[in-house]
Amino acid sequence: xxxxxxxxxxxxxxxxxxxxxxxxxxxxxxxxxxxxxxxxxxxxxxxxxxxxxxxxxxxxxxxxxxxxxxxxxxxxxxxxxxxxxxxxxxxxxxxxxxxxxxxxxxxxxxxxxxxxxxxxxxxxxxxxxxxxxxxxxxxxxxxxxxxxxxxxxxxxxxxxxxxxxxxxxxxxxxxxxxxxxxxxxxxxxxxxxxxxxxxxxxxxxxxxxxxxxxxxxxxxxxxxxxxxxxxxxxxxxxxxxxxxxxxxxxxxxxxxxxxxxxxxxxxxxxxxxxxxxxxxxxxxxxxxxxxxxxxxxxxxxxxx
Amino acid sequence: xxxxxxxxxxxxxxxxxxxxxxxxxxxxxxxxxxxxxxxxxxxxxxxxxxxxxxxxxxxxxxxxxxxxxxxxxxxxxxxxxxxxxxxxxxxxxxxxxxxxxxxxxx
Lengths: 304, 106
Hints:
The complex is a heterodimer of chains A (304) and B (106). Chain A has a 13-stranded antiparallel beta sheet, with no helix packed on it. In chain A, a hairpin with a 6-residue loop joins strand 13 and strand 14. Helices cover 3% and strands 59% of the residues of chain A. Mean pLDDT of chain A is 86; it is low at 1-19. Chain A has helices spanning 3-6, 12-17; strands at 9-10, 21-27, 30-37, 40-48, 52-61, 71-72, 79-91, 98-116, 126-144, 152-166, 171-176, 182-187, 193-207, 214-225, 244-255, 266-279, 286-295. Chain B contains no helices and eight strands. In chain B, 40% of the residues are buried. Chain B has a four-stranded antiparallel beta sheet with strand order 4-1-6-7, with no helix packed on it. Chain B is mostly beta strands and 106 residues long. Chain B is elongated. The termini of chain B are far apart. Chain B has strands at 17-27, 30-37, 40-46, 51-57, 63-70, 75-82, 86-94, 99-105. Classes of the chains: A mainly beta (304), B mainly beta (106). Chains A and B meet through strand 8 of A and strand 1, strand 2, strand 3 and strand 5 of B.
């Protein structure tokens, strides 16, 4: 067996067993956590104590999404490391109202490899690897009345700064074959571009109580987006303030019916309104519409 | 709101009885599971999946209290396992207006 094949680790069996998400106790306060979501696998250790929790994970795109398989070898070039620390301040008595407060900080760093065809020739490929970073702070305050038909309220705030790279869009390249026939091939011809973003947001989940399974979560987002480019055209400008700003308001209504075999199922609908407050982007100044979501295994307090 | 005394984590009791409590969402949305054994908080977890606690309780009568928060008439299952004392017991319970609590003595 050649050396590079020895380095090729295939995690099919492990991923197949732990698909979707799993936490495995290792010691009384240390767990191993793994999950598969959006075509990526995330694994790492997690410490859980009553007052705080900490988690350090690696997130890597699956090599074969259909079979939930990740192959790690010398060609693996994309991944992200995530560190999350959460501090809890809870008041959980045996009777009466319950209040859960938490403050968390998450730091992310990753590297992604991009491919594009500068000359429009599929035989001449250019590679570029770029680093992305993100920093996120989140505050959650969840208050429960503690009685039947009692209210439940969850106030959540989040501030996220991210400096992410994104592949350029594909364009159609017209080429002429030796027999004179012109064909069009879609490919990425431009290098990736950088997009620094600062995004504060706040949401208020509100359940009035009663047996009708409906609750509300209005949310407000404000995005600051930067050009990523300096005046000389090179990338590396991390300011999120120089391209455009946009305010977005969503009015979520969630319906959580009692469905046997599907705990945590919910169906959500939200009219939204988005208005650009400065700069320019690819959308109209005012955008409106409706969002719809279906989730399984979800809870009232999970929003951001 | 007046400051309340916070329950403490459970401690091992020498020469006591082994106990396992299991809380499992069954249908509808369960938000939080809380369980107290002998007035100590032993389970504090989101209701999106099964939560359990295994420990030792004293031989004398021990109060157990379960508090579950959810949406509407969601359902959950409470499991109690006292090896050597009683067979596994499982009971399915329904929230009333998003809340349910049950107290028992073991």
